[in-house]
């Protein structure tokens, strides 16, 4: 009887399930949640942006001055060639004196238009210097040179009148800085022209890409302009560039 009991016990052990003993140990569940990295915050330096904008406008102004000086140099060279070729037809004393008087009247009219209390415009200062040079040449009996310089002074006065027509001096904005001379520019994209130097001012009209404009002054990144249709307003600096 005892051998049968021992056999039954052995068979029970053999038939006991083995999966529990062979099962791999339980692993902790994995966290599959992805960690999203936020992009770094961009800090804008408004003062630095405004300084860079002013420097860009200064570059445009200086480039325009260089072009203007080169043009005047070419005109002077041609004038000398004409004088050498036509020595017998040099200007008389009366013609030179008349031209100088006309230049002086034009400059005085420009000074009055700008207002006696306002600082002299760049065109007025330039014209006055040219008129002084004309007087010096006249005293040295170089009447042709005096007439030429007087004509240049009148041209400067005419440019100043164009600036005054586009810019009511009594409505000059706070912080407005005039360019040394009007800048010949164009739009680089479709641009709104506003009533004042800021995005909060009313839109007066819109210019398409490549439209020719003349710039006279600026406040921060806003430029006072006039288009070919004689419409005036303010445009953002990023929408203008040198005229091609």
Outline the secondary-structure elements:
Elements: H1 2-15, H2 19-22, H3 46-85, H4 93-114, H5 122-139, H6 143-166, E1 177-187, E2 191-194, E3 203-207, E4 212-219, E5 222-227, E6 232-236, E7 240-242
Antiparallel strand pairs: 1-4, 1-7, 2-3, 4-5, 5-6
Helix pairs in contact: 4-5, 4-6, 5-6
3D structure, described in words:
The chain is of the alpha+beta class. It has two domains: 49-167, no CATH class; 170-242, SH3 Domains (SH3 type barrels). The chain is built from six helices and seven strands; from the N terminus they run H-H-H-H-H-H-E-E-E-E-E-E-E. It has helices at residues 2-15, 19-22, 46-85, 93-114, 122-139, 143-166; strands spanning 177-187, 191-194, 203-207, 212-219, 222-227, 232-236, 240-242. The strands form two sheets. Strands 6-5-4-1-7 form a five-stranded antiparallel β-sheet. It has a two-stranded antiparallel ribbon with strand order 2-3. Helix 4 packs antiparallel against helix 5, helix 4 (93-114) runs parallel beside helix 6 (143-166) and helix 5 runs antiparallel to helix 6. The longest helix is centred in the N-terminal third of the chain and has 40 residues, at 46-85. The radius of gyration is 40 Å and the shape is elongated.
| Low-pLDDT residue spans | none
Helix segment tally = 6
Rg from Cα: 40 Å
Taken from the alpha-carbon principal axes, the silhouette is: elongated
Backbone structural class: alpha+beta
Percent of residues in helices comes to 40-55%
Distance between the termini: 119 Å
Strand content: 15-25%
Q: Return the average pLDDT rounded to an integer.
A: 77
Element order, helices and strands?
A: HHHHHHEEEEEEE
Kindly state the number of beta strands.
7
Biggest beta sheet summary: 5 strands, antiparallel
Q: Describe the strand arrangement of the main beta sheet, using strand numbers.
A: 6-5-4-1-7
The number of distinct structural domains comes to: 2
